[in-house]
Amino acid sequence: KQEVTQIPAALSVPEGENLVLNCSFTDSAIYNLQWFRQDPGKGLTSLLLIQSSQREQTSGRLNASLDKSSGRSTLYIAASQPGDSATYLCAVHRGYGNKLVFGAGTILRVKS
Amino acid sequence: ETGVTQSPTHLIKTRGQQVTLRCSSQSGHNTVSWYQQALGQGPQFIFQYYREEENGRGNFPPRFSGLQFPNYSSELNVNALELDDSALYLCASSLDGLAFFGQGTRLTVV
Q1: Which of B97, B98, B101 lies at the smallest CB-CB distance from A44?
Q2: How many CA atoms lie within 13 A of A33 on its CB side?
Q3: What is the DSSP string of chain A?
Q4: What would the pLDDT profile of B28-66 be if each residue is shown by its tens digit?
Q5: What's the whole-number mean pLDDT along residues A79-101?
Q6: Measured by CB atoms within 10 angstroms of the end CB, which terminus of chain B is less buried, N or C?
């Protein structure tokens, strides 16, 4: 059974810091891994999708890496801003007909 | 903007009642999934539909049921509501492995 763990559960940093969010999964037989952002009471916004054959993806100040063999992914946020404050969720997918399995998320607060 | 819309945004129901939540997916996205997200937790998979047929189900009782229609819309029905059904319900459509989520329906059971 796939289990996804995110560390830390919560993080508070001053504006401008670079930070790393961690995601680990127990079953390396994944099709892809997706990082999402969720604002309070809202839906999920997709940030980055990494296919199982890829090592990393970048979008603006965000960079996500994937190491399937060790069951780990990291989301790197450069030069954090107060607008980055949200919950960040990672989810792994086993492919067609299968579900996304989510971690519990990391609650990020960036202080101005 | 994900192109996935859910209605209603908020709903209050009484224990024992039935509820229908609706989702409209992007055209061409023939896979739709529903998730339940309790406060402070990650979303939990309820079920998935592909071309109007259920093709995956999570650990939810049969009183959770769904439908998918040819026009890329879908429904989640919950019978005999319980207090623990209070949660954010999320609909997601997917294409080539990339999932797009709606804004969710906040269901409160009192």
Answers
A1: B101
A2: 31
A3: ---EEEE-SEEEEETT--EEEEEEES----SEEEEEEE-TT--EEEEEEEETT-SEEEETTEEEEEETTTTEEEEEE-S--GGG-EEEEEEEE-STT--EEE---EEEEEE-
A4: 888 899 999 999 899 999 999 988 899 889 999 999 999
A5: 89
A6: N
Whether omega before B8 lies within 30 degrees of 0, making that bond cis, reads: yes
- CB atoms A91 and B50 under 8 Å: no
Is residue B78 helix, strand or coil?
Answer: strand
Specify the 3-state DSSP secondary structure of B33.
strand
Say if CB B44 and CB B64 are below 8 A apart.
no
Q: Which residue has the tokens 């939810």?
A: B60
A102 contacts on B by Cβ (under 8 Å): 35, 42-44
For residues B86 and B91, give the distance between their C-alpha atoms in angstroms, rounded to a whole number: 16
Pick the closest to residue B13 from B94, B82, B97 (CA basis): B82
Contact with chain A for residue B26, Cβ under 8 A: no
Reported confidence tier of residue A1, pLDDT bands at 50, 70, 90: confident
Average pLDDT over residues A5-9: 96
- Other CB atoms within 10 A of residue A59 CB: 12
Indicate if the pLDDT at residue B1 is higher than 80.
no
